[in-house]
Design goal:
With 203 residues, this protein is of the alpha+beta class. Helices cover 23% and strands 44% of the residues. The strands form three sheets. It has a six-stranded mixed sheet.
């Protein structure tokens, strides 16, 4: 009887399939990045099998929740964000051997810093996400406005079909760096310049 009870308790404490998947993904990314600074793997070159869904959700405010628990370790979030993948409107964590679907309420990434950088004598806008993605605003990585939950919000395209929501305080800084104009029909338009790219954002 004692052995049976112990066996039952050990079974109850064993990691869930989701936990095992997260551990496997984290270990893979750590192995890849152990001798490098943060880098994004070549996800577009991988064609793994789909391995179902995971109880992991990225909230509209940027929080990651796994099995009802808030994930707080930034180092782990940085690891998992590097293998985020978007395909046919669905989001996944992707490695060479498995692709697991997760849920994303809005955008999977969040911009928390903006600065102007000089490249070949031209000023560019450079955005940084909470996961240390650095994005130079250009034709391939434009800033755009999109509606979410009845509100117009600013985003930037980052990589592999993934967008990042630009936090409110960062957008205020962009307003300071740009120019506000009012159209004849009363709309306020923010004009931003990054290199040769001109962006016109309306609210």
């Amino acid at each position: 009887m004692v052995n049976q009870n112990n066996s039952s308790q050990e079974s109850e404490k064993s990691p869930s399939d989701d936990d095992k998947n997260l551990i496997n993904i984290a270990q893979y990314v750590k192995d890849v990045q152990q001798s490098h600074k943060r880098s994004i793997p070549p996800l577009d070159q991988w064609h793994p099998k789909h391995c179902g869904k995971m109880d992991l959700i990225i909230k509209a405010n940027g929080e990651w929740w796994h099995e009802g628990q808030l994930m707080k370790r930034q180092s782990m979030l940085d690891l998992f964000s590097s293998v985020l993948w978007q395909e046919a409107g669905k989001f996944y964590l992707k490695t060479p051997v498995e692709q697991i679907e997760i849920k994303v309420e809005d955008a999977p990434l969040l911009v928390n810093r903006v600065e102007q950088v000089q490249i070949d004598g031209q000023a560019y806008l450079q955005l940084t996400t909470t996961n240390q993605d650095v994005v130079l605003v250009d034709d391939a990585h434009p800033i755009f406005m999109q509606e979410y939950a009845g509100e117009r919000r600013p985003y930037v395209h980052v990589r592999f079909g993934l967008n990042a929501l630009i936090q409110r305080q960062v957008f205020y800084h962009l307003v300071e760096l740009g120019q506000l104009d009012e159209t004849p029909d009363g709309k306020v338009v923010l004009t931003l310049k990054s290199g040769d790219l001109l962006l016109h954002l309306d609210s």
